[in-house]
Write a structure and sequence with these properties.
The complex is a heterodimer of chains A (288) and B (356). With 288 residues, chain A is of the alpha/beta class. Chain A is 33% helix and 30% strand. In chain A, the strands form three sheets. A six-stranded mixed β-sheet of chain A has the order 6-7-8-3-9-10, with helices on both faces. In chain A, strands 2-1-4-5 form a four-stranded antiparallel β-sheet. Chain B is of the alpha/beta class and 356 residues long. In chain B, 65% of the residues lie in helices and 9% in strands. In chain B, α3 links the parallel β1 and β2. The longest helix of chain B is centred in the C-terminal third of the chain and has 33 residues. The relative contact order of chain B is 0.13. Classes of the chains: A alpha/beta (288), B alpha/beta (356). Chains A and B meet through α2 and α3 of A and α1, α9 and α14 of B.
Chain lengths: 288, 356
């Protein structure tokens, strides 16, 4: 037994001739928020399906909370929560009935549907049919369903995709609350800003392989180029934009020269985003 | 397999399933079919057996029979008219009462000569002798032995359309619901992706299949009984008929679950049902068109559901005469169960969970 909530060793999966997940290895610590980033088709969903017991790995193993998922699927599934990207609620039921059904399937003894729906901002609409809900409301209900069994590991697949800022913020706050409770969060997202803000560590996945895995700060330090951007007035009254790369040999001299001109109007620093780093590592954009 | 989870799924399906159009159709269609057949060919509004009487004297038994709620009486002036009515189906049975009928009662054994319409329903042939015997004993005031010698008139080989359509109605009742309910329920779970949400709970493929199967078997058996009642064909050994309906419902459900496991959308389900419809409803054609040799029925699995029911309820045969068909039906149900278990295991092994 160790402190890893998730331990993945040499995990492999293929569909016919397509190698979807190519011998990946990683671990996620207890109480950690791990971001899993990559473009469509990178193998993220297949990996999550193997971790959550929906797919049997073709090779390697995934150990969650000390249980091999393929061998102890029910034990693992009773301890995890999954929030899907696509809405998959029972739309003819009310929100309360949806939660009640899943609390019964998980054999939850202290189920309080009203309190749970209040947490996701759905108070007052508990008994309404889900088919009448907006996309944001449905997504918040999906999040509520994923935590109905007080999971030790919470898998969230694009939980804020296509949502309004208010709903997105509510879901991000809930993820942080779950981490405070002690849950480990495995977050799959395209949203670099969200990953940067929420995740303790992020893994970049491309063509079935993990190409980088570290804290956002470390990734930026390791792969990103820092620079300063200055707006400088030219002699003919025009504004010029000058960029000086930091961490390079001539940086000090270039900065002295810039300020010595006396024409600097504004200056700010700029650091690489996770998107920039992903492009640098894979040559692909995350949103593709 | 976890029975608590199975019950949870059943409860949710019972509470929210009726909002589903396919489920509503599975209930409404067979009932509509049975009602249409009955409206077109009789039975539902003509429940009572028709008894024709030619009374040579003025027997008091006629008054007793007239009070019976099980038969309707028709009176004839001569034996020729009575025989004609019996031969044409105007009455199910015709009896001639001798001039000294009442006077002969104290002397013992009573013998009736009865003309029976060859196409009359078995239940009517059963009801009339019972009513006659009761009436004789009421009149005599003692438990006299009553012997009815039946003379069949008309075409005994021919079957009335109301009876010919009963197999179709039975098959609709059992197989439309028994097959559609579990298959459409599983397909809806796949199409609406709710199956994915179930797949990440401790619920197993077996739990999901069992819950849908229990609902389907229950409803299909119930629908079978309802359609038989509406067709006026629920007579004879009722517990045995219900057992056959139950076995038929299990067979229908097994097929429905297997189809549901492999078909991914409702349109494809209807296409499969259209293509496979002949295997389900083929036996109904054999009953509708008697010129088709009856051995053709043996190649259809559903024949072994329809045949015992028709034999028991309409033809009035004994248990031993349907034993062979029942045995084949039991074997088919067991084979279906084995196949279904293999499918569930395959789904569970290949992709741990259904729908992945």
């Amino acid at each position: 037994m160790n402190n890893n909530a998730i331990l993945v060793e040499d995990l492999v999966y293929w569909y016919g001739d397509l190698l979807a997940v190519d011998h990946i290895n990683f671990s996620v610590g207890n109480g950690e928020i791990m971001g899993f980033l990559g473009p469509n088709g990178a193998g993220k969903t297949t990996t999550v399906k193997m971790l959550t017991g929906q797919l049997r790995p073709k090779g390697g193993r995934a150990v969650l909370l000390g249980y091999d998922v393929a061998k102890h699927t029910a034990e693992v599934q009773s301890r995890i929560g999954v929030c899907f990207e696509h809405t998959n609620l029972y739309e003819v039921m009310s929100a309360l009935d949806n939660l009640s059904l899943f609390s019964d399937l998980f054999n939850v003894t202290d189920f309080d549907g009203y309190a749970l729906l209040k947490r996701v901002g759905l108070s007052g609409r508990e008994k309404d049919r889900v088919s009448g809900y907006s996309k944001g409301m449905k997504q918040r209900l999906m999040v509520a369903r994923s935590i109905v069994n007080h999971p030790q590991i919470l898998f969230m697949d694009e939980p804020t995709s296509g949502l309004d800022p208010v709903s997105s913020e509510a879901i991000r706050n809930l993820i942080l609350e779950e981490r405070e409770r002690g849950a480990t969060v495995f977050l799959t997202t395209h949203d670099m800003w969200e990953a940067d803000k929420l995740c303790d560590r992020v893994a970049f996945m491309n063509e079935g392989r993990i190409v980088a895995l570290d804290t956002p700060r470390s990734l930026k330090q390791k792969y990103g180029k820092r620079s300063i951007i200055a707006e400088v007035a030219s002699g003919d009254g025009q504004l010029n934009r000058e960029e000086i790369a930091l961490d390079e040999e001539g940086t000090s001299h270039a900065v002295q020269k810039l300020f010595g001109s006396g024409k600097v109007l504004s200056i700010h620093s700029e650091e690489a985003t996770l998107e920039d780093i992903f492009i640098q590592l894979t040559g692909r954009r995350l949103s593709v | 397999m976890n029975l608590k989870r199975v019950w949870t799924l059943i409860r949710a399906e019972i509470l929210h399933g009726p909002k589903d159009v396919v489920l509503a159709m599975a209930v409404v269609m067979p009932i509509l079919m049975a009602l249409l057949v009955n409206l077109a060919f009789g039975n539902i509004f003509t429940q009572r057996a028709e008894l024709g009487i030619y009374d040579r004297g003025e027997s008091a038994i006629v008054e007793i029979l007239a009070k019976s709620e099980s038969v309707s009486l028709r009176y004839y002036e001569n034996e020729t008219d009575l025989k004609q009515a019996s031969a044409s189906g105007a009455v199910d049975m015709g009896i001639v009462l001798p001039q000294d009928f009442d006077a002969s009662l104290p002397f013992g054994k009573i013998k009736f000569e009865a003309y029976v319409w060859g196409e009359s329903l078995a239940k009517n042939r059963e009801v009339i002798p019972i009513v006659l015997t009761d009436a004789v004993r009421t009149l005599a005031g003692s438990e006299l032995p009553v012997n009815i010698e039946a003379v069949a008139l008309g075409d005994e080989e021919s079957v009335p359309w109301s009876s010919r359509l009963v197999p179709l109605v039975i098959l609709m009742g059992i197989f439309y619901g028994g097959l559609m309910i579990p298959s459409s329920a599983i397909i809806h779970e796949k199409q609406r992706r709710t199956i994915e949400a179930l797949n990440v709970t401790p619920t197993t493929v077996g739990d999901i299949f069992l819950s849908k199967g229990i609902i389907s078997v229950t409803l299909a058996t119930f629908m079978g009984i309802v359609t038989l009642i509406l067709s006026g064909a629920l007579s004879g050994p009722i517990p045995l008929i219900i057992l056959v309906l139950f076995l038929g419902a299990i067979m229908a459900t097994e097929i429905g679950l297997i189809v549901g496991a492999f078909v991914n959308d409702i349109n494809s389900l209807f296409a499969v049902l259209k293509a496979g419809g002949i295997f389900l409803f083929g036996p109904a054609l054999i009953y509708m068109f008697p010129q088709i040799p009856s051995w053709v029925g043996y190649i259809f699995p559903t024949y072994y559901v329809v045949r015992p029911i028709v034999d028991l309820s309409i033809s009035g045969v004994s248990f031993s005469e349907v034993l062979v068909y029942l045995s084949v039906l039991v074997i088919l149900v067991i084979l279906g169960a084995v196949l279904l278990v293999a499918v569930v295991r395959r789904l569970s092994t290949r992709a741990l969970r259904l729908g992945s």
